[in-house]
Amino acid sequence: MQPMRTPRQAVTSEAWLDGLVVPTPSASPSVASSTFHMGSGVFDGLMAYRNGDHWHLHLARPHLERFCVGCRRMRLTHNWTPTDLEQGIRELLDRCPSTTHYIRPIAFRGAPEILLTPSESLPISVAMFGVPADRDVPAALRATLSPVQRVSSEAIPVRWKVCGAYANSFIAQTHAQEDGFDTAIFLDRAGRISEASVANVFFIGDEGLVTPHLRADVFPGLTRVLVLWLAEQLGVPVAVRDVDGTELDQFTGGFICSTLMEIKPLTVIDSVRFDTTSSPIFEAILSAFRDLTHERAPYPEELGDLPATDGAQSRRTFSSRS
Ligand SMILES: Cc1ncc(COP(=O)(O)O)c(C=O)c1O
Fold first, then answer.
1. Which of 287, 306, 308, 283 has its CA nearest to residue 296?
2. What is the CA(81)–ligand 1 centre distance, in A?
3. What residue spans define the domains of the chain?
4. How would residue 313 be classed by pLDDT, with cut points 50, 70 and 90?
5. Each residue of 142-160: pLDDT tens digit?
6. CATH number for the 14-132 domain, one of 3.40.50.11890, 3.30.470.10, 3.40.50.300, 1.10.8.640?
7. Where are the beta strands (DSSP E) in 164-252?
8. pTM confidence score
């Protein structure tokens, strides 16, 4: 028997499961759970920053609303509201070490039934656990263009964070790491830049900040929205447009952003070199972002009204019944 390797990330010893804080192993689905087999669960991820003596739940509301919408779309109907879930996260954090955690909510059918579309009577579970996370890490990243395309929203709507869709990210990231890079950058079927394995991408050039339009099967990340808002506040010009995979050498800098990774500068995408960290635009965005997460500056009142969240990604859509 192979020795079990130590996991790279420790998970909190307790998890919130359907309203109760329980030992994390007892929150697991059955090995015969259809969600596990089909990848039909929905998840999200948010930061619980430890600022001084308290937890600061960064963008909790939009994260939890996005999670609940994704659950409804994937017929994982549960009755927990974003307010209930936020309360659950606070109950969980009360039992966690006082350090910054990434919180992962996930909805699934845990019962043993392997049908493609399981019986409606099967219970649907919502679990949330945490992973201690570093913040403000200065590391710069090396990226490579992925040999696999970004999954199309015409196949699986990318904005719902459906577990199975992340096999696409897994394949891209595995290729990147095996080739000595830190992350992959996807192209869509039209050869346009889409995003990184699990993060959105921005470039810096003559136009100011440039980021791919959502139509390139881009996940509408909340950090992306926040960066666009910060750019507006700072007076940095922004172009949200199609970015062709062949135009990367026009840019002088680039960075990726996500809840867990925050904002990370890119030094290369394959043979194209970037001097991101000496860009005043990058410096200004990074410092304004940290002012928010450390609660030194106020957040936007409404994220949902920003233009960055618009833009249909799919002509046909798997409708919501609720
Ligand atoms: C595919 C993908 N792109 C981008 C992001 C960044 O989104 P957010 O900023 O909301 O974390 C994520 C994170 O969940 C993601 O899974």
1. 287
2. 21
3. 14-132, 141-309
4. low
5. 999 999 999 999 999 999 9
6. 3.30.470.10
7. 183-187, 193-196, 200-205, 208-212, 238-241
8. 0.93
